[in-house]
Amino acid sequence: MDKFTRFTGIVAPLDRANVDTDLIIPKQFLKSIKRTGFGPNLFDELRYLDEGQPGQDCSGRPLNSEFVLNQPRYQGAQILLTRRNFGCGSSREHAPWALTDYGFKSILAPSFADIFFNNCFKNGLLPVVLDEKIIDNLFAEVKAADGYALTVDLDRQRIIKPDGSEIAFDVDSFRKHCLLEGLDDIGLTLQDADAIKAYEAKRRQQAPWLFDAIH
Amino acid sequence: MTGKTLYDKLWDDHVVKQRDDGTALIYIDRQLLHEVTSPQAFEGLRLAGRKPWRIDANIATPDHNVPTTERSGPIADEVSRIQVQTLDDNCDEFGILEFKMQDSRQGIVHVMGPEQGATLPGMTIVCGDSHTATHGAFGALAHGIGTSEVEHVLATQCLIQKKMKNMLIQVNGELGPGVTAKDVVLAIIARIGTAGGTGYAIEFGGPVMESLSMEGRMTVCNMAIEAGARAGMVAVDDKTIDYFRGRPFAPRGEQWAQAVAYWRTLRSDPDARFDAVVELDGAEIKPQVSWGTSPEMVVAIDEPLPDPAAEADPVKAEGMRRAYEYMGLQPGITMGSVVPDRVFIGSCTNSRIEDLRAAAAVARGRKVSPNVKQAMVVPGSGLVKRQAEQEGLDQVFLAAGFEWREPGCSMCLAMNADRLGEGEHCASTSNRNFEGRQGYGGRTHLVSPAMAVAAAVAGRFVDVRDLDPLAQEV
Ligand code: SF4
In this structure, are residues B169 and B205 in contact, taking their beta carbons and an 8 Å threshold? Predict the structure, then answer.
């Protein structure tokens, strides 16, 4: 995973609550056995007027000009501003894969669904929880100013507005560390291999049936 | 000292290491694998040159992509075929037990696991699928994970987690006739909302939960994620223990006795403290139907659909307006005026033998209404299918005009050929009514198996309790 660095990016407003992972990336694209290439199908049903097929070249498909990501002013957006309970539903990691493949690096919302939230961190995508009022404000500002961009500074845990004012946010220290360092958490866990083996030995005494092979 | 909740006990028994930053390394006893969320995890292992930590803790079966029609030949859809083949190849390469498509034990992972005794009380169970909460019905800590975590569990048998908060949902009293586990869980979601359980592990308790069969408890836990909670669970009792007697991977002999003694401790202490408690009266729950595009958009069958203008929360009101437009419905009507184009009985929520019995009881001697284009029953596993056939349920369904299919996820998410056409309404026993979930432009209405059959035979949504029993030729 690449290190997460401070960046400034255009903000795209997706004014909708309870955006589920089926909407982020519809099921037909989950048939892929790769981690990449999901960007063109991000929000497929909202973005295009026809039904998308896996493996299809999306460049000639009819676009829904109403959809926010199709509007010229939001091209190249790296920050998605949205409403509560973003990422609910299926655990598909294809959702953060599609968001990062499209170019998003951070999502701002009043709340996220648990599994999706967790999946974001594994893919260098930073979900930021902000107060509903702050989100409301950001929506108003984004819509009012063409090319509205925010700076995300994970190290200092700040969102910096165009006027220089700052919004502080919380992030779990372990996750922050992994993002900033671009760490592979499997490698980290394997440093505790002895502790895992010790746990298994103890547990095998208490509950041997849990270690009976299933074959 | 206050007592522990069931979740506290399950958590404590699986902590490998507590870290200073508040996270913990948690040991995972069982991982279930299917074809959609595992290929990239196996690929990751290979790329990093890692081996699975404990091969025998994993069990796999393809379910999302498999056709539900005749399947002796290869899968017709090439992309699906490659994905299922990739699971087969990965399991063969790493030596993981898999019930392949032609195996009679193949089925939806969440039906197969308990059926085989691969799911047991007291286990931590994960799967790259959000409905893994289903297994919590047996007093296990079970939840869905993403593909990176599937790889993490394959490589280390552990997950890095933060403990969730405890919520108790207590369903008091007794259910009325014709009211089922599905109605209970839909009523719960309507009450607490799709984010109501976010950050919590939910324990479902109270006399109604105790009265439910294991299948019913699975239906309730299955939809914990629709209430925002990754994990739902129910305390162990005699029913739980009886369920596992003689299952292929359940402990035997001396170990059985030892296991049972442990399992009996898997319930919240009387003085346990919950961070949130929600109470419902079972007697007040009526058969439920979802009208919108989120599982919280649910009404009782006789209730008028809600008016967004009366909703105080603007974000919610906007969501309702959007849902009405997508669903082609209007506030104020009742679901009785809505005609289902298709009827789907299946999915990890409602495809077990008890669900099929409940559906067949309503279908017996009745006929699918001519205005319903298609009505299908998709058993949750090959073993459920066989059991149903032994009981003659397939004949009941076929005589009534239902299709009787091979096991899999099918029209729950329409990754195979089973799907809705644009604008079609479906009475479905699945768990998600999201836009496009059952097919592009499709409109899903979540109901219990009995209510789905009632809708099929009446040709519109009706209260199953109002069907005339005399019209049923037995
Ligand atoms: S039946 Fe539906 S919800 Fe259940 S695992 Fe399959 S696709 Fe997911």
Answer: yes
Q: Is the pLDDT of residue B358 over 80?
A: yes
Q: What is the mean pLDDT of chain B?
A: 96
Would you call A22 and B53 a contact, using CB atoms and an 8 Å cutoff? no
Q: How confident is the model at residue B394 (pLDDT cuts 50, 70, 90)?
A: very high
Quote the tokens at residue A39. Answer: 């960007």
Note the Cα B58 to chain centre separation in Å: 20
**Residue (of B6, B20, B13, B53) closest to B162 by Cα position:** B20
CB B296 within 8 A of CB B194: yes
Closest CA to A109 of A73, A88, A70, A81: A81
Instruction: State both tokens at A206.
Output: 């208490």
User: Which ipTM did the prediction report?
Assistant: 0.94
pLDDT band at B26 (very low <50, low <70, confident <90, very high): very high
Model confidence at B474: pLDDT above 70:
no
Count of all residues that appear for chain B in the document: 474
Which of chain B's residues have a Cβ under 8 Å away from the Cβ of A91? 37, 128-130, 144-146
CB contact under 8 A, A33 and B40: yes
C-alpha to C-alpha distance for A142 and B198, rounded to whole angstroms: 28
Q: How does strand B298-300 pair with strand B288-290?
A: antiparallel
Residues of B in contact with A96 (CB under 8 A): 146
Tokens for B318, please give them. 């906007």
State how far the Cα of B58 lies from the Cα of B360, in Å rounded to an integer. 34
DSSP notation for chain A: -PPP--EEEEEEEE--SS-BHHHHS-GGGGG--SSS--GGGTTHHHHBSS---TT--GGGSPB-TTSGGGSGGGTT--EEEE-SSBTBS---THHHHHHHHHT--EEEES-B-HHHHHHHHTTT-EEEE--HHHHHHHHHHHHHSTT-EEEEETTTTEEE-TTS-EEE----HHHHHHHHHT--HHHHHHTTHHHHHHHHHHHHHH-GGGGS---
CA distance B454 to B183: 14
Question: Hey, which of B35, B38, B64 would you mutate to test ligand 1's pocket, going by the most ligand atoms within 8 Å of its Cβ?
Answer: B64
Contact residues on chain A for B160, CB-CB shorter than 8 A: 174, 185, 188-189
What whole-number distance in Å separates Cα of residue B445 and Cα of residue B299? Answer: 11
H/E stretch holding B250: none
β A79-82/A7-14 pair status: parallel
Report whether pLDDT(A215) > 70. Answer: no
Q: What pLDDT is attached to residue B473? A: 61
Please state, in angstroms and rounded to a whole number, the distance separating the CA atoms of residues B113 and B221: 15
Phi-psi region at A182: left, alpha or beta (left = phi > 0; alpha = psi -120 to 50): left
For residue B199, what pLDDT band results from cuts at 50, 70 and 90? very high
Q: Would you say the C-alpha torsion B427, A93, B315, A68 has a positive or negative sign?
A: negative
For the cut 60, the answer to whether the pLDDT of residue B266 exceeds it is: yes
| Phi/psi of residue B165, nearest 5 degrees | -85, 165
Check the CA dihedral A130-A136-A138-A142 and report its sign. positive
Task: Residue count of chain A, please give it.
Answer: 215
Predicted pLDDT at B415? 87
The set of residues, in sequence order, having a beta carbon less than 8 Å from that of A55 and lying 6+ positions away, is B79
β-bridge mates for residue B127, sequence order = B32, B144
| Chain-chain contact of A85 with B147 (C-beta, under 8 angstroms) | no
